[in-house]
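> example.struct
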C-alpha cells in the first residue's frame, strides 16, 4: 500500500462507537480536524482492532451491532481495492479503539487479515496430517523430450511441495506439461512456449510428464521440498 499521511498521529487511532460512522469521519474526529481524504480516491486501509469487536460494511448499507462484516478484536485487516468512502463501522458492545492507516493499493495486493483461529463445534471431526512447513530444499534439473509425441516423466521419484517449470529459452516450438497422458496432439494440457513457466503444487516429481512438438526440446525446473 502507498500510505497517505494523516493530519497527525492522533488521527490514526479511531474510536468506533454505537453509531455507525464513516471511516473518514472517524479519522477526522480522532485527529480533531477536517481532512481532504474524501477527495483523494483512496482504496486501501489497514485496520488493527485493539480491544473489542467491530462490524463493518462498505456497500452503501449501514452496519449494526449484529449485522455486517465482523472484525474481531486482536486482529489486523488489510483491505485493498475497496471503496473507503463507503466504509462504515460500528462497535458490537463497548467502544473499540482501532489503529488505522489509509492509502492506495499497490499492484498485486489483495485483501487479507491476520486472523488465524479456527473454531470447530463439538462432534466427530477428523483432520488428517496438515503440513504447515515451508520448503527447505531446492533441487534443480532439466528435461528434454527424445521423441516428440512420446511424453517422458520430469525425473525419478523425488518428494516435493511444489515444482517451478519453465520452457527452455532455446525451444522453437511449444512443450506440454501434465500427467502421463499428456500428448502434443491429442491431450496438450498445460502449453508452454519458450520462457513460459508454471508452478505446480505436487508431492512427487515423477508424476509430472512433459511432451514436445520438436525432438530434443524441453524444460528447466526447480523442485521445492
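> example.seq
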Amino acid at each position: 500500500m502507498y500510505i497517505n499521511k494523516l493530519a497527525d498521529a492522533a488521527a490514526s487511532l479511531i474510536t468506533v462507537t454505537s453509531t455507525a460512522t464513516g471511516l473518514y469521519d472517524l479519522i477526522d474526529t480522532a485527529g480533531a480536524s477536517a481532512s481532504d481524504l474524501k477527495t483523494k480516491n483512496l482504496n486501501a486501509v489497514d485496520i488493527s482492532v485493539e480491544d473489542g469487536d467491530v462490524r463493518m460494511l462498505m456497500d452503501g448499507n449501514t452496519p449494526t451491532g449484529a449485522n455486517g462484516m465482523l472484525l474481531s478484536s486482536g486482529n489486523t485487516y488489510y483491505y485493498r481495492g475497496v471503496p473507503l468512502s463507503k466504509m462504515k463501522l460500528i462497535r458490537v458492545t463497548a467502544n473499540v479503539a482501532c489503529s488505522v492507516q489509509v492509502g492506495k493499493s499497490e499492484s498485486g495486493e489483495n485483501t487479507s487479515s491476520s486472523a488465524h483461529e479456527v473454531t470447530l463445534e463439538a462432534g466427530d471431526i477428523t483432520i488428517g496430517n496438515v503440513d504447515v512447513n515451508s520448503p527447505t530444499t531446492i533441487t534443480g534439473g532439466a528435461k528434454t523430450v527424445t521423441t516428440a509425441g512420446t511424453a517422458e516423466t520430469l525425473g525419478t521419484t523425488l518428494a516435493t511441495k511444489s515444482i517451478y517449470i519453465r520452457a527452455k529459452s532455446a525451444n522453437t516450438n511449444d512443450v506440454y506439461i501434465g500427467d502421463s497422458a499428456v500428448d502434443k496432439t491429442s491431450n496438450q494440457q498445460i502449453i508452454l512456449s519458450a520462457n513460459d513457466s508454471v508452478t505446480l503444487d505436487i508431492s512427487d516429481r515423477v508424476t509430472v510428464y512433459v511432451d514436445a512438438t520438436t525432438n530434443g526440446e524441453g524444460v528447466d525446473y526447480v523442485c521445492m521440498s
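> remarks
The helical segments are 23-31.
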